[in-house]
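ESCALATION

Customer reports they have been waiting on this structure for their group meeting. Please prioritize. Original submission:
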Amino acid sequence: MKKILPCVGAALMLLISITVNAEPPINAIKMIHSTNFGIDRSELEVIKSRMQAAVDDDHIAGALLLVGSDQGVGVVETVGYQGPDDKTPVNQDTIFRIYSMTKPIVSVATMSMVEDGLIKLDDPVSKFIPEFAELKVIDETTGEISRSDTAMTVQHLLTQESGLIQEFFSPDSKLGKLYGANVSSVGNTALQLAQSLGKLPVYFEPGSKWHYGHSTDVLGAVIEVAAGKPLDELLRERIFDPLGMDDTSFYVPAAKAYRIAEPIHGEMGDNTMVRPMLSGGGGLNSSTENYVRFAQMLLNGGVYHGARIIEEDTLELMTRKYIGAEVSREFFFYGDRGDWGLGFHLQPTDGSNADGPHNFGWQGIGGTIFIVDPNKDFFMIYMEQKRGGPRGSQFNNNVAQQVIYSAMSE
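Update from on-call: job pushed to the front of the queue and completed.
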């Protein structure tokens, strides 16, 4: 082994120190050519024309599509404006309500706490929220409520196998109606919401089925208790500050309100109004530029510009398939296709091979989505704001994935 001279060794150690403790960049979007992703200009023109058609047909006010990797961003296509009454063009700093794209952020924060020994995957939820100690299950056919044989754990919350549902996704069920009568986030904190849910039965024995619902809202309350601090402070310390995500928050400061995107269709709440509820399941607002930082960190194995958010082994654990043969897919959004990790969807990228490579990520009910594809070495973010409205848009978050994969494969 060659001997390192003292001055060279000192310089090398300084370089390592600078790399490890590097400040996040002022702007996360460093442009590179789209051909780095196998996408040429003619393909981008077709994609943008479809995005523009969604605006011209009054489905959305505006949208942004971005594709990047650890090397840089090769695609940023924007159309339209921030809102029907706002003629500011959509841009990388436009702030969107990302709704359920909050869930992966909270899940990553949870796993960083697992690494630190503050919480364990097999911890019962009742350890942090005692109302879940006497867990009960409702029989949807008879309405009978009985004692659960299984304790709900932190892992059940991460995998959406907790038995917690959401009235919105199951309004006609007996449990959905109980939620409607007994559960409200208005005026409550996340912990108070979780305590209300803990007093009600669950939809099924934890671990036996997958069902979308309040799992990550309860998870947010659990990690608040485990950390001894509110969720916004916890996320800021563990994710937002190290990544430089200074435009990601539960409530948008009044000084940034001019950057908020608004929908043509559907009601979206005033996200400048501070409320007690910090929803781990869907409460965050963010810009595309900010979410690039989070997505690039995931693509890069848990690190971003020297800031290690989670270990690579932890991220690998998060992106394993957790819907096993013993777990019912009756309520799984994708039926027999795909799977679910610890806070992410796992979506096959080869239509002919369900067991082949997959991307991971999640979407928001307001029209946003992000995916990370380690096999093809890219991430994609699509942002729009829409709740309901007419069907048949030429572009949305599902189309965004399709056209990018198609362009890459041609």
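Sent to customer with the following note: Confidence is low (pLDDT under 50) at residues 1-20.
Escalation resolved.
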